[in-house]
Amino acid sequence: MSSYLPTLKQLQYLVALKEQGHFGKAADSCYVTQSTLSAGIRELESLIGVTLVERTRRVVRFTALGDRIVDKAHRVLREAEELVAIAEASGKPLTGELRMSVIPTIAPFLLPRLLPRLRAERPDLKLYLREETTQPGIESLRHGNVDCVLMALPFAMGEVDSEILFQDRLYVAFPHDEPRDPPEWIGPDMIDESKLLLLEDGHCLKDHALAACNRPDLRASATMMGTSLHTLIQMVDNGLGMTMIPEMAIASGILEHTRIVARPLQSERAWRDIALVWRKNSPREKEFHLLAGILRDAAALNCRLPEAA
């Protein structure tokens, strides 16, 4: 075996530069000086005898070969991390560091119930949370930036393993006086496409809501501008339209201090599946199943809403 192999530190510097697109920001993310990071990448280039990064005063541009090596570096770093995880998993489960991405339509509603339980039951677990929408979360998982993702299905994820935790029913939320005598449930045909407000692109809840309604005209006519569920709720409360929100948000009190009425959506698949997702064949698989159970129990602490709530 050659003694002239890239070091993990050099690969970390290269990956950080690709992700940040700036030497200073990449150095900060690696907790080193800019000169240290730059020197490390130059040493890597000298070692393998090729240019990976084209440097100018304004732009950091990776060569085609540099992009290929960054992809390989992601896998090497992930394998190195999993090597350490194998040793950690052989001891007490759910101890040490665990990095989890959580999508924004779950994080503020489930985490307040989860974190106290984890602190009480797993005091040696250091859970680092990262809130991001679904596709960036899956990319973070693929690149090894996080160990698992708490998200909603269905969603195209590639080669991963997952455990479904529970079903989160969808509700239609509308101003209190529209209609004046609301029924106990709302069918997709009762939704006025000209008044439907949804989250902007990137939020999978938008796609789940549209799929549940199975009305192509909704996708064409709905206004997609909400940056968060709380923003949508404020818009609806001010009479600007109606929206669809998950049960966990209602159960967590998102409609408190508003005059919004919410009714369950009645359709063949009026829910989303909340799931914990991790890399296939991860050495921490048993831990993730254990974490999934804790997540499921934390969600169960919140009683389900009555049908006409």
UniProtKB/TrEMBL annotation:
Please provide, in alphabetical order, the Gene Ontology terms of the cellular component aspect for this entry: protein-DNA complex
SUPFAM superfamilies hit by this protein: Periplasmic binding protein-like II (SSF53850), Winged helix' DNA-binding domain (SSF46785)
Q: Where is the HTH lysR-type domain?
A: 6-63
Q: Which InterPro entries match?
A: LysR_HTH_N, LysR_subst-bd, WH-like_DNA-bd_sf, WH_DNA-bd_sf
Q: Which GO molecular function, any one, fits this protein according to its record?
A: DNA binding
> Which keywords annotate this record?
DNA-binding, Transcription, Transcription regulation
Superkingdom, taxonomy of origin = Bacteria
Family the entry assigns: Belongs to the LysR transcriptional regulatory family.
The protein's name is Hydrogen peroxide-inducible genes activator
